[in-house]
Amino acid sequence: MVEKEKKSIRGAAYGIIIILLIALSLTFVLSAPTQTAGGLTDPSNLPVKGYMNITLWADAAGWDTNHGPVNPTLYIPLDYMVNFTVIEEDGLPHTLTINKGPKEDSATLTLLTTGQITQIIGHKSHASYEFFEPGVYTYWCTVHPTTMVGQVIVNSTASNSTANSSASLCNCVHSNNNEFNKISSLLPLQSLVEMAKANINNQVMTTMVL
What we know:
- This protein has helices spanning 2-31, 114-117, 156-161, 178-184, 189-209; strands at 34-35, 41-42, 50-58, 74-77, 80-88, 96-100, 108-112, 124-131, 135-140, 149-155, 169-173.
- By secondary structure, it is an alpha/beta fold.
- The strands form three sheets. Strands 4-10-9-6-7 form a five-stranded mixed β-sheet. Strands 8-5-3-11 form a four-stranded mixed β-sheet, with helices on one face.
């Protein structure tokens, strides 16, 4: 009788150990960055230094047609989470796809599919991606790869300069003042405030001279 109880206890202990090992394995799989079929890594659960909002208008003639520079170059600090908003512009199917490198490549990650963007004019779809490796990326539409294609510049130096303002939020809508968006996304909040103060002081001095 005692021997049966010992075997029962040992069996229960082995069962608990197996369950713990399975749980640990699942935790590792769920928390580790995952490789997509094309080779780009989905940076799940990585630390984020800051956030940016970028709005793009999807048009077969080019991203942001009639809303500013066509296929604008996007400047993003390293380790920033970019919240993309894509607005359907022409009623045609589109995707928002990215890949590492200065041109379209088969190693891609599609952030928004044709079904998500839809063909309803004015429809807004959303996706986020953290750019955790510096370098040049390409964003494009797989349906219109020759006209809807632009570059993303992820700058490690820019990341260092914005480390003290990781809680700030940059709204980068390319229809308005694209150059300011480019500069403001690379400067810490304190520097932007100092630039504004200097500009005000210069205007006051000019008024006093006149």
